[in-house]
Amino acid sequence: MLGWSQRKQLVLQMKTAAIAMGRLRRAGREPGKELIDILSGVDTCCQSLFNGERHDFYHQIFAGLLQALSRDWQQMTLADRRESSALCQDILDIAIKAMQQEKCRRIILFLPYKASMWDSLESVWMAAEADESCEAYVMPIPYFERKTDYTFGDMHYEGDLFPDDVPILNYQHVSLSEMHPDVIYIHNPYDNGNLATSVAPQYYSAELKKYTDILVYIPYFATSGGMGDGQRSCFAYQNTDYIIVQAESLREFYDPQVDRGRILPLGSPKFDRIVRICRERPDPPDSWKGKMAGKKVFFYNTSLAGMIHNPWAFLKKMEYVFHTFEKHPEACLLWRPHPLLETTFRSMRKDFLPFFHQLKQYYLDNQIGIYDDTPDIDTAIAWSDAYIGDSGTSVTSLFGVAGKPIFIFNNLIHRLPQPDDWRGNLVVTDNLKWMVTGNNDLLWSPKQDGRYALYCSLSEYTSDCYYGRVFETEDYVVVCPANGQDILLVADRRVVRRIPLRDLCSTAGRFAGAWQIGRYIFLIPIRYPAIVRCDIKSGQVDYVSGYDDVIAQETDGAWTVGGSCVWQDKIVIASPTGGRILLIDAATLQVEQLNLDERDENGMMILVPDGEEIWCLPRKGYTIRCWNPCTGTIKVYEDVPEDFHCEHVPLRFECELNPWSSLTVAGNIVYLAPHWGNRFLQLNKETGEFSEWKVPFRATCRTENGYMPVWGCAVFLDREKFYYAPERRIYHFAGKNNQFTEYPMTIDEASRQKMGKGFGRISEWQRYGCLEDAYNTLEDFLKGDLSGKEFSRSAQLEAYSEIAAHIDGTAGAAIHQYICEQLDAKQGGERE
Fold first, then answer.
1. pLDDT digits (tens, 9 = 90+) for 658-696
2. 50 and 116 housed in the same domain
3. Mean pLDDT, the chain, as a whole number?
4. Domain limits at 390?
5. N or C: which end of the chain has fewer CB within 10 A?
6. What distance in Å separates the CA atoms of residue 133 and residue 128, rounded to the nearest whole number?
7. Same domain flag for 365 and 326
8. Does the pLDDT of residue 829 top 60, yes or no?
């Protein structure tokens, strides 16, 4: 079948011949050799490309033209020549129009912008290239770095960085309107919405859609089970005909406005390449060979997500990793920074860029390991024995399908653990008899004396805080979900019943907390789309929906939930961004919605009941309200000291966000526990005066102990229990005399040893691996001395097969076949 480029070339040659024919008509002279050669070449080409009627049609035209311009031309008068050349020109015009309408192979155009991301399209291109009914083209497009003011900076073009076996079409020589590809594939969904880079505006999705029948977006990343919020809704989604995802489960990560019928769970070309490259390893660069010889190679990935979220911890982690490997010459570190890392530092975290450059130079000067800045990641994966790095990257999934060990960093950890660092993984609530860990274990202190032991494991998942608050009934210990979607009833050192919730949320951060009112357990959602009530005696679960816009919002760069509390047999939930409040009757689930202040945009982060009143602490700003729901009266306190402010965690800039985490009332004094606030304050509720609250603690969220990460300084667990987060210490607080008495916490050694998880299923969003924590360190991993389960390649491959279609390496072929079928249906079978 005729190809687009062949047709384009034939039309161009015929137009050249027509122009020459026009000159011939005006001059009346004999045709030149160039014209004869063009017509002869077109005739020969048409004979090889066409069969049957189309072959005869073009051969009759060009054979006749050649005869007229050679043998017959010599016998013509000047007038006959002019008349004949005009006729020949008309015949050529007919041939040109006929050629322009010839059916040809499908034109499949790939528009990558980063050579290092070509693997996200490659196997689809390979399938199209091998398809005789298609003509596949790869046309890298230019992109711009963003300046600090987000305007365009330097332009980059990486067409010369693609593999040698990929023919490159120069974008400067192609008009998309003239080419009009049947299908265009892209792997950049952002258009003008990326703060670090932008493809050239003429290649934004709205422009591309004008020149193609089907526009397809294939993610440049792969995932280990989850997806970041930044991918839920991108500019290109509204213009693409199809979005390819690697598994059925990922459909629900996208914004509800994205038509689910356009989301195709056909797998990831990135996995195809890894499967292929690990079967047939390419030769490593010569500069790597000496450094790898006889050593186990550890692939170190420094991702954008980790850097953007907490650049200081990110850089400290780099330093820790480099120094650790300096002490282990038997191991080879292969460091591959994200291709856009320096660009993103420059545009979004420029103050930290000099520190990055300093660390990078230290690594190179001291020859700590291999520095990989090649455009192709796959050679590094093929020659690496294991992955080390954070989880916020698609590279973990590539190692997952390759069946190689994955050791997930905690970027806050910069040293070896101390004996008490196990406490950093506790989910501390007001119930000190029972505590859940972030690794989904349940601890208990039967005498409530702070001596804890492992009671049972709650989940097959080894991390991600699936559970939070714990309540106790006559028959059961009730464990409520945080990131999970079930309520657990525990007895006799095991989970005796799981009460499943509707599967309505595929992301982490499902629930913020829980409350108990009699036989009912209420779950307060963040990302889950309903308030949940569970009757513990009957197991019946009810849902209160329709209030998502009140309860939780994405604001100031994070998902935030309003405060909640129990007040007079009602659940009270506040908005984090305004003055709205819900009052839900525990028995009837009747909902009353109020608005304390329609002008308020700062929201209420914390609600604390105090008799008939409820104290409302703001998410933003320093206005404290004391509200009486019975009378509707509101007392306002806002004259905080001038030097009181907040420090953002983790970006460390001064702000007015999250000043307080809780309070307790003793007589006329309100003690305010700071969250991001820089001082401990107390409030005289009669006079409205704020003053210093003298405590034996620093008001800080900073700590050098990454095993005990701090997101807020301190909190009252109830009226008398006070928790100081930087040291993970609990105190009994006597408000009348402002005295703190520490509640000691210890754990027996047998339980401690069982709490090291080792390798296993981490969560729905990180299918398999081992986490760096107080039980398993980077040193332990390098030495092969981990606590818990050993690595199992078969278990890892089984886990990853659940979140990747066509994990055998055939995703590209499946994508190409499906899109061609849709194209045929749209075009009626063949391209016209």
1. 999 999 999 999 999 999 999 999 999 999 999 999 999
2. no
3. 93
4. 283-409
5. C
6. 9
7. yes
8. no
- Residue 484 Cα distances to 223, 479, 743, angstroms: 20, 11, 29
Number of residues that this document lists for the chain: 832
Q: Percent helix, strand, coil in the chain (nearest 5)?
A: 30, 30, 40
Structural domain contains residue 74? yes
> Which residue stretches of 368-415 are H helix?
378-383, 395-402
Q: Which long-range contacts (CB under 8 A, 24 or more apart) does 564-567 make?
A: 564/512, 564/513, 564/515, 564/524, 564/607, 565/515, 565/607, 565/608, 565/609, 565/614, 566/515, 566/516, 566/517, 566/609, 567/609, 567/614, 567/629
**What is the reported pLDDT for 27?**
65
**pLDDT tens-digit readout, 187-245:** 999 999 998 899 999 999 999 999 999 999 999 999 888 887 889 899 999 999 999 99
Q: For 482-539, write each residue's pLDDT tens digit.
A: 999 999 999 999 999 999 999 999 889 999 999 999 999 999 999 999 999 999 999 9
Look-up of token digits 């409520």: 480
pLDDT tens digits along 100-133: 888 888 899 999 999 989 999 999 999 999 998 8
Of 750, 756, 707, 708, give the one whose Cα is nearest residue 453. Answer: 750
Q: What's the CATH code of the domain at 715?
A: 2.40.10
Closest CA to 738 of 690, 680, 685: 680
Token code pair at residue 180: 């009009």
* 790 CA to centre of own chain: 28
Give CA–CA dist 444/470, Å, rounded.
11
Nearest to 563 by CA among 614, 623, 636: 614
Of 400, 23, 397, 6, nearest in space to 221 by CA:
397
Tokens of residue 301, six digits = 């990935």
What is the CB neighbour count within 10 angstroms for residue 598? 9
Can you tell me the mean pLDDT for 9-32? 81
- 71 and 153 share a domain? no
Tell whether 576 is covered by a domain: no
- Count of C-beta atoms within a 10 Å radius of residue 650: 18
Q: Domain ends where: 53, 75, 100?
A: 100
141-150: b (≥16 Cβ within 10 Å) or e = bbbbbbeeee
Question: Got the DSSP string for 583-626?
Answer: EEETTT--EEEEES-TT--S-EEEEEEETTEEEEEESBSS-EEE
Rounded to 10 degrees, the C-alpha dihedral 447/450/455/458 comes to 130
Find where tokens 């265009």 sit. Answer: 184
First to last CA, the chain: 12
Residue 337 structure tokens: 């920074």
- pLDDT (average), residues 738-744: 96
In a domain, 232, yes or no: yes
Task: Tell me how many domains the chain contains.
Answer: 4
pTM score = 0.82
Q: What is the pLDDT of residue 828?
A: 67
Model confidence pLDDT, tens digit, residues 554-572: 887 789 999 999 999 999 9
Judge if 113 and 138 occupy the same domain. Answer: yes
- Contact at 8 Å (CB) between 316 and 310? no
CA distance 284 to 457: 44
Can you give the pLDDT at residue 832?
43
CA–CA separation, 40 and 616 (whole Å)? 88
